[in-house]
Write a structure and sequence with these properties.
flat
Length: about 80
């Protein structure tokens, strides 16, 4: 997701295909935390670094993935213990 943050201009223009447009909207929603964080750190909503936004998004979604995998492993191990 961090890598897609640099493609804000191309993804923000929606396709005429409704499936592709839905994927583009979803991708834009997932990039919002990094864009907001970068704007807050820079102090200017109109001029902020997309590189910093990509770093924020990468960190956030890496942490979400790490926690999700850890919880999934714990659930899987607890199921195996019960069986």
């Amino acid at each position: 997701m961090g890598g897609l943050t640099g493609a804000v201009e191309t993804i923000s223009t929606l396709s005429r295909n409704p499936v592709i447009a839905g994927l583009q909207e979803t991708a834009m929603m997932l990039k919002i935390p990094g864009l907001l964080g970068s704007a807050i750190v820079s102090g200017n909503v109109h001029a902020f670094s997309l590189v910093f936004a990509a770093a924020i998004n990468t960190s956030i979604y890496f942490a979400v993935g790490w926690i999700s995998c850890s919880l999934w492993r714990r659930m899987k191990q607890s199921r195996q213990r019960r069986a």
